[in-house]
Amino acid sequence: MNKLISAAFGMFTVLATCVSSNLSAATPDWENPEVFAEGREPVRATAFPYPSKAEALRGDYQSSHWFKSLNGEWRFNYAATPGERPEYFFREDYNTSKWKKIPVPSNWEMHGYGTPIYTNVVYPFPANPPYIPHDDNPVGSYVKFFSVPDDWKGREVFLHFDGSTAGMYVWVNGHKVGYVQSAKNPAEFNITKYLKDKGQNKLACEVYRWTDGSYMEDQDFWRLSGIDRDVYLYSTAPLRIADFFAKAGLDKGYRDGTLDVAVKIGGVGSTSGTKLELGLYNADDKAVMTSVKPVTGGNTTVDFKGTVSGVAKWSDDAPNLYTLLLTLVGKDGKIIESTSAKVGFRSVEIRNSQLLVNAVPPSPLLHISFQIPDPPYSPSSLPISELSLLLCSSLSPLPTRSLSPLITRDYFLPLSE
Fold first, then answer.
1. How sure is the predictor about 13, in pLDDT bands with cuts at 50, 70 and 90?
2. Which of these, 159, 105, 167, 101, lies nearest to 411 by C-alpha position?
3. Is residue 366 over pLDDT 90?
4. Which of 12, 116, 270, 336 is most exposed, with the fewest beta carbons within 10 Å of its own?
5. Higher model confidence: residue 360 or residue 8?
6. Which pLDDT does position 390 carry in this prediction?
7. What is the spatial distance between Cα 131 and Cα 82, in angstroms, rounded to a whole number?
8. Bridge pairing between strands 72-79 and 300-308
9. Does residue 346 contact residue 358 with C-beta atoms inside 8 Å?
10. Do the Cβ atoms of 288 and 280 come closer than 8 Å?
11. 198, 206, 202, 308: which is closest to 248 by C-alpha?
C-alpha cells in the first residue's frame, strides 16, 4: 500500500513539475500545483489560550473569553461554474442581504446545491491533471458579519477553519487574507490588521469544489463541498505560546516516564523578566512535575526535560493521560496566557518481529470498519453521539496474526471512549 501511495505521489509530482513551466500568471491557484496556501499561519499543535491556569486545566475552550465561535447561519451564493460566481462579493459595498442562508459547518450538497458524488477509482471529472474543468467546478460564496470584544483591542486575533473543501479564498473587510487548499486540515490566518476598531467586520470566503489537489483524493468516499467544520476566532497577547511539542516516553526499565517538551514563543514584545512555567498533572489534578524557564526573546524555543517516577502508563487497556500545562508569565507576575494538552506515557517498539507496547504484546486488536453514511448525512455533520453508535456497531474482533491498518476518515474517538 505504501509503495502504491508513494508511486502515485511520485507520478503526480513529476507531472506537476512538467506542467509548472507552462503555467502562466493567469492560472488560477486551484489549478497550480505550486500554490496550496497563501497567508496561512504555520501548522501548530492544537491548543487554545486561556486567561488563567484553572481555565486551562479545565480545557473548556468554548468558555474562554479569548474564543469566539463563528458557527451558525452564513449568507450563501451557489454558482455552478467559476465564471458564474459573484466575483467582487468580498467588497464592503457589495450587498449580500438578499442571499440565501446556509449553516456552517455543513456541506452545500446537503442543502440543495449541487450533487453529492460517490465514486472510488473513477475521478468525478475528466482527468487532465493538474487542470479542472471550468464548466464543472461549483463555487460557494460565503459571507459572515462579526464583531470582536472591546477588550481584544491591542491583542492578536486569529481566524481558524477546522476544514473546508476543497480550495478557499478568504477576505476580511475587503482585504485579501489568503488562500488555503487543505480539505480536511485546519488553517489559521492572523487577521488583526484587517479588523475595524469598532462595529461589524465582513468575512468573505470563496470555496471551490475541485482543485488540482483533488487528484490526490481519489478514494471511495462521498465528494461533498463547503465549509464543513468549525470556524472560530481566538485572541492572544502580542507575545504568545505559538506552538509546542511534547514527547512522553518510558525509561529503559519501563517504570518511570520521560518527558521532553519544546515550546515555541512567538509574536512581538519585550521578553525582559518573562518566564515560562510547565506543570504536569495526573488524573487527580495533582502536580507531578513542575519547572520554570526564562524566556530570552521572541520567536525562540524553550526546552524542558523531566522524569515522572512510577508513571501511570498509557496502553489500549488502560489509556492513562496526564495534563500538560504551559503558562507564560510577564515580569509583573501576571499571566499572559496559559494552555494545556493531554499526554500519555508509553513506548512502542518492534523486537524479534513482535510489536510491543510498554514492553508487552498489545491485547487483541479491534478492527473498525466504518461505512460512510449516505446523504442526507455525512461524517462531518453527524453528532458525536450518533457517530459513536455507528462506530460501536461496526466493531469486530481481529485475529492477532492478521494486522491491518486503521484508517480514520473524519473523526476518531479517544481510546478511553
1. low
2. 105
3. no
4. 270
5. 360
6. 53
7. 14
8. unpaired
9. yes
10. yes
11. 308
- 31 Cβ contact list (under 8 Å, min separation 6): 23, 130, 131, 132, 211, 212
Mean pLDDT of the chain: 86
Interatomic CA distance for residues 54 and 65, integer angstroms: 13
* CA separation for the pair 47, 44 (Å, rounded): 8
CA distance readout (Å), 112 to 22, 79, 275, 374, 375: 38, 12, 53, 15, 11
CB 45 within 8 A of CB 244: yes
Give me Rg for the CA atoms of the chain: 24
Q: Residue 167 and residue 37: Cα distance in Å, rounded?
A: 9
Cell of 406: 486503521
Mind giving me the DSSP string for 216-236?
G--SSEEE--B--S-EEEEEE
Q: What is the pLDDT of residues 303-362, one digit of tens each?
A: 999 999 999 999 988 999 999 999 999 999 999 999 999 999 999 999 999 999 999 998
| DSSP-derived secondary structure letter, 66 | T
DSSP state of 207: E
User: pLDDT tens digit string along 237-286?
Assistant: 999 999 999 999 999 999 999 999 999 999 887 888 999 999 999 999 99
Rounded-to-integer distance, Cα 282 and Cα 300, Å: 29
